[in-house]
Design a protein that fits this description.
With about 600 residues, the protein is mainly β. It is about 5% helix and about 40% strand. The longest helix has 6 residues, at about 10-15.
């Protein structure tokens, strides 16, 4: 039995078109290969990875055909027809078009006929046997050469796209999860975020604004028969909110919470997970923002500003120490955590580190220190994820999350000042908290061990991974990511390495080589570096091997196995937008 999924619009789209003087050349070698299929083929669908688009108008083949394609076909299908219809569909993050030259020489065209958003699809009823020259194009000239999948089926259209960078509610949120019941206390709950990203929501048919692929926040809500759910955001810039509810519906807003601040009111909220993206209305750098989750209204009941007050008495006492003190370390039991958002309290006014976490308003400990010839190490041990905030004798703020290893924070003061250090031991999560130990030392973090900063290839990669075999298409295989981190590659991986990276790899490549060499490189507006742990366990590092401050590693006769890849920034200064490129043809150039 045949699946009849054809719409009237789609039928009209593939009616044979009177040929024009076509620049597209069916006799040209297809860019992404060819294949032969007979009716009843399995598996169904057969899917081919390629790049959609080109520089030539598809109207060169017919004045009625929109979009842009190349002069050569994307793929040639030699089809032996039988008792089934033939479905061709294209899936991509951009608006695709299909242009097909059928075995009888007739031209066929479609824009959105697959029934899946802006993806093209055409069904050939009682198809001919012979060669189908297939072009996969883009509707707009600016969307050329985008990763796409061509699906060939006798059953139905297909919209699967492993190359998709569309926002995904299933990806782990960047700023954590809030679990709430109806009538929850401490209303509103507030979360400090960085709003913005590289993806334009309008390209995916949802909302507007620029976001990252992963949501910023998950709100797990038990549902309510009494209250509406209000999610809003406050920032100094024009921001928007995009929220996908438990039923998959999108909720979007720009300015409903006043003064260019967005707010979404969800009436009779369903129980389940609400994925929240914080967007900038227009492209640009990330901006600090605060998300409010409330049952009372937009921005909730806003309390007085969060303050870390060093004038308050410290909760766990104080000590006066001189350089060379013993015993070393000087350990202080404290209670980690609190109700003050340290990012809101300190904000961007921090000398070193980046403030995250929750602490009490009063310091946990005051240290009066007489400096000498030693560095000063302040760190904390805690069963969970702790953070450290220090106000130094000159009034400057210093923050850290994980520099002492095992999710423990640590701050090292080179050539420390004499005077008073006010110390807060916080927790990364708002509702964590418990006993911890503050360590004061002139030897190392924790007082008895040197800090360990290994790059750990056993951790899940920040941006996923891929299995590739020699001759893979599309080539290059590209991954958009954020380069950089807090760890010095020279210390964490190998003395020949340079730059700053994260503990976990950014990407994991499982590779089965063919006859060609392997090239791994990165492109960014910043000076970036690359660190690779190869299948043999060796470290490979590079700074500018791909030219123009772009790093690249060339593997001649590459080994089969796993390549764990870090993309770093040469200097500190925060993350940088970058593209990782994997190729068998050479180093990638934008």
């Amino acid at each position: 039995m045949k699946l009849q999924l054809m719409t009237g619009a789609a039928l009209a789209a593939i009616v044979a078109i009177a040929p024009a003087q076509a620049v597209q050349d069916p006799s040209a070698a297809p860019a992404y290969g060819s294949g032969a299929l007979s009716s009843g083929f399995t598996p169904d669908p057969v899917s081919i990875g390629l790049r959609a688009g080109g520089a030539m108008p598809a109207s060169d083949a017919s004045e009625w055909c929109p979009g842009y394609v190349s002069y050569q076909p994307s793929y040639n299908l030699d089809y032996d027809a039988g008792g089934y219809d033939l479905y061709l569909s294209a899936a991509a993050d951009v608006d695709t078009v299909l242009l097909v030259n059928a075995p009888d020489g007739s031209w066929h065209c479609d824009d959105d006929g697959s029934g899946f958003g802006l993806n093209a699809g055409m069904m050939f009823e009682d198809p001919q046997s012979g060669v189908y020259n297939i072009w996969v194009g883009t509707y707009g000239s600016g969307g050329g050469y985008s990763p796409a999948m061509l699906h060939i089926s006798e059953l139905a259209f297909d919209d699967s796209n492993p190359y998709s960078q569309a926002p995904s509610a299933n990806m782990a949120p960047q700023y954590g999860t809030i679990s709430l019941n109806e009538g929850f206390a401490d209303d509103p709950r507030t979360i400090a975020v960085e709003a913005g990203g590289e993806l334009e929501l309008g390209n995916y048919g949802v909302c507007w604004g620029n976001v990252d692929r992963a949501p910023d926040l998950w709100v797990d809500y038990a549902g309510s028969e009494t209250f509406d759910l209000y999610i809003s955001m406050e920032a100094d810039n024009d921001t928007t909110l995009a929220i996908q509810g438990p039923d998959g519906d999108w909720h979007c807003d720009d300015d409903s919470a006043e003064n260019l601040n967005p707010g979404v009111q969800i009436s009779d909220p369903l129980p389940g997970r609400y994925a929240v993206w914080t967007a900038r209305y227009s492209s640009g750098a990330y901006v600090p923002a605060t998300v409010y989750v409330s049952e009372l209204g937009f921005l909730g009941n806003i309390d007085e500003p969060a303050v870390l007050d060093f004038s308050l008495p410290s909760q766990s006492g104080s000590a006066a120490l001189q350089a060379g003190f013993v015993p070393d370390p000087y350990d202080v039991p404290v209670m980690a955590g609190g109700g003050v958002d340290v990012y809101e309290a300190v904000g961007d006014g921090v000398e070193t580190g980046y403030c995250r976490g929750w602490a009490d308003s009063a310091p946990d400990f005051d240290l009066d220190y007489q400096a000498g010839d030693f560095d000063l190490y302040l760190s904390a041990s805690y069963d969970g994820d702790a953070t450290l905030v220090v106000n130094a004798p000159d009034g400057s703020w210093h923050c850290d999350d994980d520099s002492a290893g095992e999710l423990n924070p640590g701050l090292r003061f080179d050539n420390p000042q004499s005077g008073r250090y006010d110390v807060w031991v916080g927790t990364y999560g708002e509702y964590d908290g418990g006993p911890a130990t503050l360590h004061v030392s002139e030897l190392a973090f924790g007082g008895g061990f040197e800090p360990a900063y290994p790059l750990d290839f056993t951790l899940p990669a920040n941006y996923g991974g891929v299995d590739l075999t020699g001759g893979f298409v599309p080539d290059p295989y590209l991954v958009e990511l954020m380069a950089g981190g807090d760890l010095e590659a020279e210390v964490a991986a190998d003395s020949s390495c340079r730059g700053f990276v994260t503990e976990a790899p950014d990407f994991e490549l499982t590779f089965e080589p063919g006859a060609l060499d392997l090239y791994i490189s990165a492109v960014s507006d910043r000076d970036t570096t690359i660190v690779i742990n190869g299948p043999d366990g060796s470290w490979y590092c590079n700074d500018d091997g791909a030219g123009n401050f772009n790093p690249g590693v060339h593997f001649a006769e590459p080994r089969a196995g796993v390549y764990d890849i870090w993309v770093g920034t040469y200097s500190e200064g925060g993350p940088a937008d970058a593209v990782l490129a994997i190729s068998e043809l050479g180093f990638y150039e934008e």
